[in-house]
Amino acid sequence: MPRFTANLSMLYGEVDFLDRFAAAAKDGFKGVEYLFPYDFPKETVAEKLKAAGVEQVLHNLPAGNWGAGERGIGCLPDRVDEFRAGVAKAIDYATALGCKQVNCLAGIAPAGVAPDVLRATLVSNLGYAAAELRKAGIRLLLEAINTRDIPGFFVDRSAQAIAIMDEVGSDNLFFQYDFYHMQIMEGDLTPTFKRLKDRIAHVQIADNPGRNEPGTGEINYGFIFRMLDAEGYAGWVGAEYRPKAGTSAGLGWMKNLA
Fold first, then answer.
1. Residues near 249 by Cβ (< 8 Å), separated by ≥ 6?
2. What is the DSSP letter of 40?
3. What span, in angstroms and rounded, lies between the C-alpha atoms of 92 and 61?
4. What is the DSSP string of 74-135?
5. Which residues are catalytic?
6. Residue 109 to residue 224: CA distance in whole angstroms
7. Which secondary-structure segment (H or E) carries 254?
8. What is the DSSP letter of 2?
9. FRET pair for 115, CA 20 to 30 Å: which of 43, 80, 91, 223?
10. Total of domains in the chain
């Protein structure tokens, strides 16, 4: 049976951030992930993790001005210094939280900048981050995100992500495979996972359409979960969806499908 993490940013968005850890533990989750911890002292977040008895599985590198619509700065050539400062900040937090993997959001491609310049910037930034994170014993992840939810997102398909990873050439850079995003962009979920499983360190789930809980849409998650077990996937599965009928009330999928 897969090990599930609660994405606190999605499942418990109506709860004060520092109370979400206990809420997830009460619902039976053993691990948590979320967008960012940086608005709170790392010591405070660590205390909440310990009190709730949950593991910090994943958070993102700093991703620019989220409230203003930025969705990562990894590909932005005029933000390299900010990216590198963010790597140091992420290491500081991840170390304090016992978090062993951090995700990089590539960002939205800006108008007027050539794609090859954006790619070269991202490759350079990922190489830097992977090396720095390795020193701290933390894995770097790269995620592909669908361009319906985030128009213009620079990394939007699995083949593109793997090609970029190959260009970086680091053994500390892994793919974060989100079944929801990839169902929208390319489908063919099971063959793609099987082909890339040695490059995948973390997976995330939501159903489509609607980005609601598994079992509400077109993706056969019972099949997906059995496939993950059969393929020997040992990582966590991040529940990153919008609850359709309330978080706690909608968790039957964990028993019925897994």
1. 243
2. S
3. 11
4. TT-GGGHHHHHHHHHHHHHHHHHHT--EEEE-B-BPPTTS-HHHHHHHHHHHHHHHHHHHHH
5. 143, 240
6. 32
7. helix 253-256
8. P
9. 91
10. 1
Placement of tokens 């940013």 in the chain: 9
- C-alpha triplet 34, 35, 37: angle, nearest 5°: 85
Range of the domain at 243: 3-256
The H-assigned helical ranges of 136-201 are 158-168, 179-185, 189-196
Judge contact between 1 and 236, C-beta under 8 A.
no
We report the CATH number of the domain holding residue 115 as 3.20.20.150
Across 205-212, average pLDDT? 98
Question: Is residue 113 within 8 Å of residue 152, measured between CB atoms?
Answer: no
**If DSSP codes are grouped into helix, strand and coil, which group holds residue 19?**
helix
Distances (CA, A) of 34 to 10, 145, 153, 170: 8, 16, 19, 25
pLDDT digits (tens, 9 = 90+) for 219-257: 999 999 999 999 999 999 999 999 997 899 999 999 888
* Tens-place pLDDT, residues 169-182: 999 999 999 999 99
In this prediction, residues 21-38 reach a mean pLDDT of 98
pTM of full prediction above 0.70:
yes
Straight-line distance from the first to the last Cα atom of the chain, in angstroms, rounded to the nearest whole number: 6
* β-bridge partners, 106: 72
Nearest to 118 by CA among 62, 74, 61, 165: 74
- Is the previous residue joined to 77 through a cis bond, with omega within 30 degrees of 0? no
Residues in Cβ contact with 136 at an 8 Å cutoff, skipping those fewer than 6 apart = 91, 94, 95
